């Protein structure tokens, strides 16, 4: 797996904190920092997600992918899956994630709660590389709800 990240800030004034990530699979992703009122040259322009927001989003994508795949392999009629992540970070450098909660909403027909519970557990214990890696610094908790499809 490869990724190249390039600074897109203003090269003449050395300001701006925008970055362009180009992935090995041929996709691009913009990232930016928060504006800094005290030192505008050190801040971003809020034009894209923060780098750590992309880490959190990637973790959500990784675990949701697992949950859907596990449910489909179990022949469950899954029609939708969302995961809402909320995280807390350390107050001092390095400001790693210290707590992450993931709330899954799974939509489908006649999916047993035990199947969703098992899929979420399998993702976090065995398959989701991102959440397993983040669990080295963060207390990760999960919850879920089932919505019956029409």
Strand order of the largest sheet: 1-2-3
Helix content: 25-40%
Low-confidence stretches: none
- Domain module count: 2
SSE pattern? EEEHEEHHE
Biggest β-sheet description:
3 strands, antiparallel
N-to-C CA distance: 40 Å
Report the CATH C-level class of the largest domain.
Answer: Alpha Beta
Number of strands: 6
From the coordinates shown, what is the CATH architecture of the largest domain? Answer: 2-Layer Sandwich
Short summary:
This protein is an alpha+beta fold and 150 residues long. 29% of the residues lie in helices and 33% in strands. It has 3 helices and 6 strands.
Which features would summarize this protein structure in a list?
3 helices, GMP Synthetase, Chain A, domain 3, 150 residues, 3-stranded antiparallel β-sheet, OsmC family protein, 29% helix, alpha+beta, 3-stranded mixed β-sheet, single chain, OsmC/Ohr_fam, 2 domains, KH_dom-like_a/b, OsmC/Ohrsf
